[in-house]
Amino acid sequence: MVVCVYLPRLELVVAAGGAGPLAGRPVAVAPLPGCEQRLGEASGAAEARGVTRGMALGEALARCPDLALVPADPVGVAEAWECALRALESIGAVVEAARPGLAYFGADPLRVLHGDDQATIAACRRALDRPTRVGAGPTRFCALAAALAARSRRALVLDGSDARRWLARRPISLLGFRPETEALLEPLERLGVRTLGELAKLPRDALADRFGQAGVSAHRLACGEDDPPRGREGTERLSETQDVGESGSGPALERVLGVLVDRLLARPDRRGRTLRSVTLSARLVSGGGWRERAVFRQALCDRERILLALSVRLALLPAPAATLGLSVECFGPPAGEQLALLDRGRSMRVSRLREAVAQMRAAAGPEAALRAVFVDPDSRVPERRAMLAPLADR
């Protein structure tokens, strides 16, 4: 059994300072300054008047002239979502964070701690202590459909025998919650496909021929097939925050950034490790926040090189800052590495290759570096000759 936890409109609730200001009012998250002028999440009243997430700002104001815009707060969203994930992990769940406001975890291992599935869901609600939609089903996609159809105070649990029949009546808009199938919504609607049951009746090979791997993934989800949840890796994060006062921009803000870098490198819990990727964040004087992730070309612990890389990101700040923050997302190896005494050239090549793979994974995810394994080299079908497997760290 897989449990899905859905916090509706988390980005909008955090930006508006709570769910109270959203009651009955058309409200949406404003675009970030300097970015593409498209809205973030919209309230229920705004959606009733045709305003949706990702809509151009001009079109949204034409449809709803009294639309209220609140500044985006990616820093607050990240902090609120991290608190929610830690609350779920506190009950023993191995959580997969799909995106802010949406998470999955397996309920079977928690029966030893909490009892049956209903007791596990109750423990989840107590840990979060906020309005949450919870659904459970045999797969992640079934649990997602159940969570979206559930009420805030009552979970919806789908049994394995009835889950597929119930899923067949759901709209294909559920595919928009998966990045690999999100682009299929418009073409499927043009083809007249309205429900997942209608999609499941189509031949899988025909969908693969028309849409490629995205069509295969959509057909698997419509048939109730899905991969099990993959829990997030436990990472140690260090962070430093400083009120900038009158130094909201310009060279004075760069000096504040230098202070944050010095504090971060002086932390004893860094234990001499290098920094592979960091997150630069700020609370803006005008309201809202700003957040930028930086992956270094190689793991660093040199103050000047770190400042040189982050000063470019600091120039992207859309407005004067009230608070500046710097946190470590991923650590590298210790600064001092002992090389091999003999065959130094091979040792250096292996070390550089290992470092390049680690940097690629930090920038593009764990599946950024794969290796080809030949399983059937003599096959007449090219796709069967080799398969991709994770590249082991050696």
Distance between the termini: 36 Å
Give the helix proportion (percent range). 25-40%
Question: N-to-C SSE series?
Answer: EHEHHEHEEHHEHEHHHHHEHEEHEHEHE
The largest pleated sheet is described as: 5 strands, mixed
Q: Which class of secondary structure composition applies to the elements?
A: alpha+beta
Strand content: 15-25%
Residue ranges: pLDDT <50 for 5 or more in a row? none
Question: What's the tally of helices?
Answer: 16
- Per DSSP E runs of 2 or more residues, the count of β-strands stands at 13
Radius of gyration: 24 Å
Give the overall pLDDT as a whole number: 85
Shape from CA axes? globular
Strand order of the largest sheet: 4-5-1-6-7
Short characterization:
The protein has 16 helices and 13 strands.
Write up what this structure looks like.
It is a single chain. This protein is an alpha+beta fold and 394 residues long. It has 16 helices and 13 strands. It has a 5-stranded mixed sheet with strand order 4-5-1-6-7, with helices on both faces. Helix 1 crosses helix 4 and helix 13 packs across helix 14 (303-314).
Search tags:
single chain; 394 residues; alpha+beta; five-stranded mixed β-sheet; four-stranded antiparallel β-sheet; 39% helix
Topology, pairings included?
Blueprint: E1 2-6, H1 10-16, E2 27-29, H2 44-48, H3 57-63, E3 68-70, H4 74-89, E4 95-99, E5 102-106, H5 111-114, H6 117-128, E6 133-137, H7 140-149, E7 156-157, H8 160-168, H9 185-190, H10 196-201, H11 204-211, H12 213-222, E8 239-243, H13 251-266, E9 273-284, E10 289-300, H14 303-314, E11 321-334, H15 344-364, E12 370-374, H16 382-385, E13 386-390
Parallel strand pairs: 2-3, 6-7
Antiparallel strand pairs: 1-5, 1-6, 4-5, 8-11, 9-10, 9-11, 12-13
